[in-house]
Design a protein that fits this description.
579 residues; 21 strands; Rossmann fold; ANK repeat; Serine Threonine Protein Phosphatase 5, Tetratricopeptide repeat; single chain; 9-stranded mixed sheet; 21 helices; disordered N terminus; 4 domains; repeat; alpha/beta
């Protein structure tokens, strides 16, 4: 969440409502939200300000608090009021929640608007505004276009270990959404649909029917609806008659560490553009303390005049004193190269080549890396040279390998052939590709209980949040087939049940309780299920066990629920689940 003030995502708990009480609140013409099995996703929309929600005040566009949601309710393409009333949407998620009309597969997306206080024009946004959204795993940020490329770049670096999908879609408009000729409706709707329907674990920027990688964009036009460009990387997705995802381009995190947000950024960075006859005094003044990092925009392929010894000397002094200087081209397209002598002299002066990074990405990356207090200067320089979030050119997968690998990887999984999976990976395969049913190799591995295969897939790029066509996650598959060690490993990586799976957990827990299946109850607990979740009749697992006289189940459930820490440790010995 981007805010100076603490905001919380509306949930059943924050509204003091539980499904067990919902029957008292609905008439014959309503149905509880827990029956909303067609919901594709719940998305948090954070309104930071910008043109999309501005209104006219004294013939000047300015942000206006609390006006945005009211306007969206009047737009049928962005809100189905009849359906919202039918399922008592506002009762469950608050007055700031809306629901999209169904798509062609009868799927819906429920989204909640949280408003930044105060609303900002994006020209006023600083690095203090980029923090505090650890609690969210799916959101769209409404942001002004002036600094959107900077914020999207910064957020891409701040989101570390993005093995879980963070549906972050920056979007905005050139014309307020209230106006007749606005691009706001298409931009918001497209961002919501992509965030709610596809597992793309990246910070993206959606604008004018196109989803870009957030750290690859730059604003190129201040008067066109097509305001942004990604000069050195093809779009991640395009929304035309259908939404087409360029999976070859999607960045996958090769990590099993849990997702976290690094909110520390270093402000002592700057952007310096070379021009003919720039003086050494100007460069010297710019590089003085407290400056710690500089993006130097150079000519062509990263060139600077090699006959300007005075400039090169100032740059050399700065790098020797610990200032990190990144060499980026002034050109819209292309990358920095050392093929020319005029480019090599900058390397000799201690500058680091920025490859094909945009200036916005390089500046944000510097701010992020310099804030790493546990790294020494050399480690920070190495980090600046590495491709951290797809901000620099990387080898793209060949499409024909991807097509072959899609079926081969699923087949390899069924027999647990890790060596074959490794070979596919070496050929450039994306091991998160789906089959016809939307099942990834990780889905199949979790069903089979092949721990080594699961470990390998997680160590590469397999996402634990992919859903098959029935809405099942790999974690749900592992729980269903009672593979405790696989469940433990998935949870350690950061896997969690989807909202729909959590909604349905109560009935399953009650059934297991009635049958006295302690092992399955333990696995559900290990997987993060709420053991107090009521079933369809309003009773929870303990109440069911009491009603059928299974005292051992009552005692076991009480033990599991006695302490959150204990629950996580049940069945775990020396960091692994007991057999």
């Amino acid at each position: 969440m981007i805010t100076h003030h603490a905001l919380s995502l509306p949930t059943l708990e924050t509204n003091n409502i539980s499904p067990s009480h919902s029957g008292l609140l609905f008439s014959d013409n309503t149905e509880p939200l827990t029956s909303l099995h067609t919901a594709a996703a719940r998305v948090l929309v954070i309104n930071t300000g910008g043109t999309i929600g501005m209104t006219l005040h004294d013939n000047v566009l300015a942000p206006k608090a609390n006006a945005f949601v009211k306007s969206l309710r009047k737009l049928p393409i962005l809100h189905d009021e009849m359906y919202a009333q039918k399922i008592c949407l506002y009762h469950y998620y608050g007055e700031n929640s809306l629901v999209l009309p169904p798509d062609k597969d009868s799927k819906r997306i429920v989204y909640t608007i949280m408003e930044y206080s105060p609303l900002l024009d994006s020209s006023n946004i600083t690095t203090d505004d980029w923090k505090n959204y650890e609690s969210y795993d799916g959101f769209v940020i409404l942001h002004g276009t002036d600094t959107m490329a900077y914020t999207a770049s910064a957020l891409s670096f701040m989101c570390e270990h993005l093995g879980k999908p963070l549906y972050s879609r920056f979007t905005g408009t050139r014309v307020p959404i209230y106006e007749r000729r606005t691009d706001g409706i298409d931009n918001l709707l497209g961002a919501l649909l992509i965030a709610g329907q596809f597992v793309i674990p990246e910070v993206g920027l959606y604008f004018h029917h196109t989803l870009y990688r957030g750290n690859r964009v730059t604003k190129v036009d201040n008067s066109s609806f097509n305001a942004f460009s990604s000069p050195n990387l093809a779009p991640l997705a395009t929304a035309e008659v259908d939404i087409s995802i360029n999976w070859d381009t999607v960045w996958m995190a090769n990590t099993t560490a849990k997702f976290r947000v690094s909110t520390e950024l270093n402000r002592n960075v700057g952007l310096l553009r070379l021009f003919p006859d720039i003086t050494a005094a100007t460069v010297r003044a710019f590089l003085q303390p407290p400056m710690q990092g500089v993006v130097l925009e150079t000519y062509g392929s990263g060139n600077a005049p090699d006959n300007r010894k005075d400039l090169l000397e100032e740059l050399k002094k700065a790098t020797n004193s610990g200032v990190i200087i990144i060499n980026c081209t002034q050109c819209l397209r292309g990358k920095v190269s050392t093929s020319y002598a005029t480019g090599k002299v900058l390397i000799d002066a201690g500058l680091i080549g920025g490859g094909d990074m945009t200036s916005e990405a390089a500046l944000s990356k510097l701010s992020y890396v310099l804030a790493k207090k546990d790294l020494d200067l050399e480690a920070k320089k190495r980090m600046m040279s590495q491709n951290l979030r797809g901000e620099m050119r990387a080898k793209l997968y060949r499409r024909f390998i991807q097509i072959i690998a899609k079926s081969l990887s699923i087949s390899c999984k069924r027999i647990g052939d890790v060596e074959a999976l490794e070979a596919l990976k070496e050929m450039g395969s994306n091991l998160s590709l789906e089959d016809y049913d939307g099942r990834t190799p990780l889905h199949v591995a979790c069903c089979e209980g092949n721990l080594k295969a699961v470990q390998y897939l997680l160590s590469q790029e397999a996402t634990v949040y992919a859903k098959d066509r029935y809405g099942a996650t790999p974690l749900a598959n592992a729980v269903h087939f009672r593979h405790k060690e696989v469940v433990w490993l998935l949870r350690k990586t950061g896997a969690q049940f989807s909202r729909d799976e959590l909604d349905e957990a109560g009935t399953e827990l009650c059934s297991l309780s009635a049958s006295g299946d302690l092992e399955s109850l333990e696995i559900w607990s290990l997987a993060g299920a709420d053991l107090t979740k009521p079933g369809y009749d309003g009773q929870n697992a303990i109440q069911v066990a009491q009603s059928v006289g299974k005292n051992e189940v009552v005692e076991f459930l009480a033990l599991l629920m006695s302490n959150t820490t204990k629950v996580k440790q049940i069945g775990v010995v020396h960091g692994s689940p007991s057999s």
